[in-house]
Each structure stands twice: as C-alpha cells, then as structure tokens.
Amino acid sequence: MFFFLICHQRTYLQLIQNSAARLVSLTKKRDHITPVLHDLHWLTIQKGIMFKPLLLTYKVVNSMVPDYLCELIKLYTRPRSLLSSSKDLLQVKSYCTKTYGARAFSNIAPRLWNYITSAKVRLSIFSKLLSRFICF
C-alpha cells in the first residue's frame, strides 16, 4: 500500500500518471490534466490510495472476500447502548511498531472506514459516499 508515502513521493507518482494520461489521450503538455483523467476514469494518486483500502474494507464487511482477509478486521462491540449504536464501526487495533504496524491493512482500513461511513450501506450508496469523501 502507498498510504504512508511522503508527499514528494506522491507528487512524483502523480507526475508519472499525468504523463501516462497525456500519452494515452494525446493531450498537449500545456492542457489541463484533470479533465483528461476524468475522461479516462482514472483517480488521482491520492484518491486511489484512499479508495483501495476502503473498497477492500467494504468487501470484508460484507463477506465478499476470502476468510483470511475477514479475520483481519473485526466489528467493534460496545459495552453499552449509545446513540452511535446504529453505526457498525470497526475495531481499531493497536500496534507495536510504528513502521510496520501503522501501515498494516488491519490498522488503516478501520480508521478510514470509521471516518467516512457505517457498514450498513449498499454498494451504490457506498460509491456515492466514497466519491464525496474523496472529492472534498
């Protein structure tokens, strides 16, 4: 995952993606790249980095992936009834090492998932919520 790339590394990857989009669409260097990326249905690097773990998390929550991925993420069980009980939040695990633990799917996915939405959404609603979240 590219979630913890440094800013200049993301910028470098974005420049490569922009060049590839210009090559595929035969766009001039001085033209704006955003409409080109939109026409090609390509996400920018930053949006793609956030989209992949969120989509995989959605599939894990709805049991659309193998069991070994489902074991990485657990639903959060509340000790008592709260106003947020209608939302199915995911349990955020603690980690020992900053370098590897923070980058793990089992840590990133629940944090992003709990930030944007509840687990009881249909795929169409999920994609709309995700596009709003990414396009802020």
Short description:
The protein has 136 residues and is an all-alpha fold. Helix content is 54%, strand content 0%.
Helix content: 40-55%
Relative strand content: under 5%
Note the gap between the termini. 22 Å
Please state the structural category. Answer: mainly alpha
On the 0-100 scale, what is the average pLDDT? 78
Beta-strand segment tally: 0
As residue ranges, the low-confidence spans are none
Radius of gyration: 18 Å
Count of helical regions: 7
Secondary-structure element order, N to C = HHHHHHH
The major beta sheet can be summarized as:
none
Number of structurally distinct domains: 2
Shape: elongated
Structural descriptors:
mainly alpha, single chain, 136 residues, 54% helix, 0% strand, 2 domains
Describe the model:
By secondary structure, the chain is mainly alpha-helical. It has 2 domains: 42 residues, no CATH class; 92 residues, no CATH class. It is elongated, with a radius of gyration of 18 Å.
